[in-house]
Amino acid sequence: MDIVLRAALMYLVVLVLLRLTTQRIMRSATPLDMVVIFFFGGMAVPPILSDDRSITGALLALCTIAGLHTCLSHLKRFWPVVGMITEGNPVVIFSNGTWDDAQMRRRRVDPRDVMAEMRQQGITNLEDVQSAIVEHTGAITVVPKRHGT
Amino acid sequence: MISSTDATEIQLEANPGFERRWNHVQTALQCLIALFVSAGLVGLFGQGWLARATKAFDRAPLQVHYERLLRANAPTEVRVTVASPLPSETLQIGVGSELLEHASINSTQPRAASIDATASGVTYSFRLGPDRQGAITFKLAPRRIGWIVAQLSSQGEQLDLPLLIYP
After folding, report:
1. Which of A39, B26, B134, B150 lies at a CB distance of 3.0 to 4.6 Å from B161, suitable for a disulfide?
2. pLDDT for B92-137, tens place per residue?
3. How far is CA B51 from CA A70, A121, B7, B47, in A?
4. Which of B27, B29, B36, B165 to probe the A interface (max A CBs under 10 A)?
5. Which residues in A lie closer than 8 A to residue B75 (C-beta atoms)?
6. What are the domain boundaries of chain B?
7. Taking the CB of residue B149, how many other CB atoms lie within 10 A of it?
8. What angle do CA A11, A12, A16 make, to 5 degrees?
């Protein structure tokens, strides 16, 4: 029982801390983001398993985390607020030549992140961009201007 | 189900038959995970109310609190409490060889005054003091998996403790 409770607590703690710390880890694995993943991964396991080195204990912890993850994934389909809390919402940070500094500060995104995404899409000039959006997944979507607009 | 050609002109190697079968397997596995975690919560794999057990010697005023469901390589405790004053200030507890073969006794609390090997296992002697009461804790580390009947003895009596040690 203890392992299940400890695994559930650590899952929620890491989820909240990741949400607060950075959203873009899976999309842009810069050293700044990766260091968080490494430390979180290393520090979350010992409190869950403690001195327990049994296979059953490890299975219980893994299944608890898998179960919680599945539950939250289902819950956010029924209650969008769960998705908003755990993942956030898309936010426009650039539109028609204007940067939204307040949103960029909150999302800790700088113009270089947008430029990198632009270049990956083959866009080399900011003037060709209609808008840039930080998605709830942490990805940055660059919407190019349509021809003739 | 929307077919790949309906959805997009991009050629996909979709396999609806496999996806349908996989969805069934996935649902079954998710139910198994839910059952496994629920069983863990109630202590079916140790450290819960299903695992905890208490047994008492017939004549000696000793109670043994232990976990009957254990995990190999996970520490556990066996606690022997003296319910009423004993005739002597010294309490001797014998631990049978069956338990010693499956688990290591890392330490006791309080420390034993003496530990003697016997034909049937090991005998621990504890000084209880003038109250002739107290509690003794054996800190165990199960090593080998399986179903065993651990034996404790004291005051000429023997107590069987059925244990199941998971991997």
Report:
1. B150
2. 899 998 999 999 998 998 898 888 988 888 999 988 888 888 899 9
3. 28, 58, 53, 6
4. B36
5. 51-52
6. 15-44, 52-166
7. 11
8. 120
Instruction: Tell me the chain A residues in contact with residue B145 when contact means C-beta distances shorter than 8 Å.
Output: none
Most A CBs within 10 Å, among B52, B71, B102, B106, to test the A interface: B71
ipTM: 0.73
B68 band by pLDDT with thresholds 50, 70 and 90? very high
Among A52, A56, A63, select the one facing B167 at the smallest CB separation: A56
- Give me the mean pLDDT over the B40-65 stretch: 90
> For the structural domain made of B52-166, what CATH number should be given?
2.60.40.680
Q: Which of A53, A59, A63 sits opposite B73 (nearest CB)?
A: A53
Q: What is the pLDDT of residues A75-120, one digit of tens each?
A: 999 998 988 888 888 889 998 888 999 988 888 888 888 898 899 8
- pLDDT 10s digits, A84-95: 888 888 889 998
Q: What is the pLDDT of residue A97?
A: 86
DSSP letters, chain A, are: -HHHHHHHHHHHHHHHHHHHH-S-TTT---HHHHHHHHHHHHHHHHHHHTT---HHHHHHHHHHHHHHHHHHHHHHHH-HHHHHHHH---EEEEETTEE-HHHHHHHT--HHHHHHHHHHTT---GGGEEEEEE-TTS-EEEEEPPTT-
B42 interaction partners in chain A (CB closer than 8 Å): 1
Q: Is A58 on the interface with B (CB under 8 A)?
A: no
pTM metric for this prediction:
0.76
Question: How many A×B Cβ pairs under 8 Å?
Answer: 59
Report the alpha-carbon distance of residue A139 to residue B164 in Å, rounded.
49
Q: Does residue B44 sit at the A interface (CB-CB below 8 Å)?
A: no
Structural tokens at position B120:
């049937």
